[in-house]
Amino acid sequence: MATLLTVSVGLPKDVDWRGRTVYTGVWKQPVDGPVMLRRLNLDGDGQGDLGGHGGEQRAVLVYQQDSYRYWAQVLGRDDLMPGQFGENFTVDGLPDDEVCIGDRYRVGEAVVEVTQPRVTCYRVGLRMNEPRMAALMVAHHRPGFYLRVLTEGLVRAGDGIVKLSTGPEAMTVAELDALLYLPGHSRDDAARALRIPALSPGWQASMQGLLDQADEQEGNAGLETAAAPPAWAGFRPLTVTALDEETRDVFSLHLAAADGTPLPSALPGQFLTLRLPGEAGPLVRSYSLSGTPGDAVYRISVKQEPHGAAGTYLRANARPGLTVEAAAPRGSFTLDSGEQPVLLLSAGIGATPVMAMLHALAATQPDRPVWWVHGARDGAEHAFAAESRELLRRLPHAHTHICYSRPGPEDRDYTTAGRITPEVLRGLNLPPDTAAYLCGPTEFMGEITTALGELGLGPGQVHSELFGAQGGLTPGIAAAPAAPPHPPDGPPGPGPAVSFVRSGLTVPWSPSYASLLEFAEACDVPVRWSCRTGVCHTCVSGLLSGQVAYSPEPVEEPGEGNLLICCSEPTSELALDL
Ligand SMILES: Cc1cc2nc3c(=O)[nH]c(=O)nc-3n(C[C@H](O)[C@H](O)[C@H](O)COP(=O)(O)OP(=O)(O)OC[C@H]3O[C@@H](n4cnc5c(N)ncnc54)[C@H](O)[C@@H]3O)c2cc1C
Ligand code: FES
Q: 416 C-alpha vs ligand 1 centroid, how far in Å?
């Protein structure tokens, strides 16, 4: 019989880490005597970041004494103490390759159920003073696991652990962990995992991603958003074939292959990245495709911002015959091909990706119910007014609502004066299964997302595109005021140029940084990460052009056209979708 050797608890506290403050509960201390195990926690225990740890599905973390012995040998450590891996229960027995998801056990007075392997995160490395720890635990098939509490009760060190039942499908913790993180994901096994009701919802979503992954799709669809590989690597020349004036400060460019062959089709909502000559080095900027997906040529529509470098360059130089360098269309803000109603909502130049979606609907799904909601200042700044009207005429189940914030005396073609507000959205009477696609200024999108949530649209129904850097994800790090992206402190590095395209920053790489992630952080470029050692794919980013070397090698490489910034450095000039 397995035995509970140690019960450890600890409340979150602030810990210094590389000049930042991490709020974490990974420091646990053994307790003598009985401890009450409740649905969310042991008494006296807590987690700092409930997004990644804790909660009903992850109330208790279990790690095995056998793994302590293993790591002591592999890492040459003689200082490992119970609770060191952040676990609550240190146990004798219950190995990861025998315990199954859904197994039920009685421990003391409590009854518990296994819900998922431990999630890899940098904090175990922080606690162990071994930054590779998250990756090692996966690669060596020793993750440990989480329990849900079915019956609350007292537990204490020395309690026997009695198995009550085996989870359906008898899928072990080690098997499931390898299925998600290691290469060679079997669809049959993902389907098996989905038949285990005890599996936590987060892992169920990952398993669904693996099950839905197309055969030809590279990368890990359990950890990354699925996207087709880019149609070409790096930048290729495209020729401007025509120019359209849309409004006073918005113009469209038609771009064709230099040899006249049809360009690979893009998905409705994707964007193109251009590399243009600039006074202080190349200007790398992204523009959503605004024309009909599948056309032999691409159309982008550019708003010339006052003092905007790329907009000004294109305004001055774009004419038929100009060659520009372009990276392949990419992006996961794309129209789904389902049957449910669609809300296409935009403000100002944010109309571009949803125009491509409107073209796609008119061409291929004319019977789909569509709500077209757009906000502009007035008729003179209303881009694509005639084009969208014509497309909407071809959609018999379309509804239109145009808001002009400052309509002029001559303006007639709008529905309401003012901005797009929650009241406007309420008045649309959207069906509850509507899929919403939003594009506009950041603050506006935040308000609209909240308002759609209040109307009952879940997060999975609301998709948005930002014309700038996306929000960062820095688990457990205390919030600090966000500084705009800037070159790193100190003299410029001697390495190749790295363009953080969404942030509009190009800076030379310096080998004094351990990874592109650390380099981006030094530039205050918003980044997303969790394990920082090549396992979780949270840091996956678009590699628009260039090559990188990995160190350490990631547990599994990301899909083509992407990179993991936490464990890579440039070996050539880079353009990153960050
Ligand atoms: C996925 C994606 C899709 C996009 N799609 C589109 C699209 O379809 N159409 C489009 O037009 N844009 C789009 N963008 C935005 C585009 O990439 C550029 O960021 C934007 O056009 C500004 O680029 P710029 O070089 O002209 O301006 P920048 O030189 O980068 O300037 C940025 C801002 O700073 C201001 N600024 C710069 N210098 C000064 C100064 N000296 N004084 C005061 N203010 C200053 C500018 O007015 C501008 O508002 C998209 C971005 C992304 C990430
Ligand atoms: S942060 Fe986990 S793979 Fe990069």
A: 28
